[in-house]
Amino acid sequence: MAGRLPGPEARWAFSTLGCSGASWDELAALAGRHGFEGLELRVADDEPLRIGLPAHEAKVAARRLAGAGLSVVALNTYVRLCAPFEPDERRDHQSRHLSALVTLAQGAGASGIRVFMRDDDASPGPGMTAGEERALRRIVAVTGQCREAGIRIFVETHDSHSRGDRTARFLSSLDRHVPGHPCEVVWDAAHSWSHGEDPAETFEAVAPWLAYVQVKDIRAADDPVPVMIGEGSYPIDRLMITLAAAGWRGWLSLEWERKWHPELPALDAALARVREWVRS
Questions:
Q1: Residue 211 maps to which CATH number?
Q2: Of 94, 158, 176, 216, which residue is most buried, by most CB within 10 angstroms?
Q3: Is residue 122 part of a domain?
Q4: pLDDT-derived band of residue 2, with 50, 70 and 90 as boundaries?
Q5: pTM of the model as a whole
């Protein structure tokens, strides 16, 4: 089963975390060389896309990437939904960034924005934590804006919400309290596994809200440094079998974290390895 895609309609993307600062032309060339069709675009001060970018520049990016046949799967942001509010909520840093990023995503032609929960409460009870209540309030504040812009908010299985079961509890609460909310799930598959969930368990938990899957291989659950696909300890065959059995047809996005691990080979080599692995 190694390398078998979950159905003929599955599409591959990659995150620009693996090629920080790359130009639109460089991204198009990378994707075209290896047959990738989508991008997760990192948003930060050291990237072409950043908060405060003039609207016309975001639209230039959208035109350049669309002209190369590329979809912008998400803008990868560092919003922390569970963070404490500023003393004056009207000036809350996370809320203002969230709203600005919805506008940026619309201009850049993205489907949505990736966010983190980052809850300080590591041992939640059956109800919402104080941090999750803050996340809910921030989501309520932008739900109308997201609806008008056609933008979704992608909650990643990361940090406090690495496990699918906890992420699913939060999304279920959102469904009850905020009908029509814009939130879906980005499943960082290796994160959930390194926190004790089998791929089948995580998929069952988050499937109702699943937007796309971030794929990577890592040395070990307790040593999550990325390695080439198929060369680490992450059970990627089980992931693919799970997706295939469910008939899932969404995006698979390679997250090659060279920004945080500059000793890694270039993204070009990692993309080549993915295509080799898929065809094996």
A1: 3.20.20.150
A2: 216
A3: yes
A4: very low
A5: 0.95
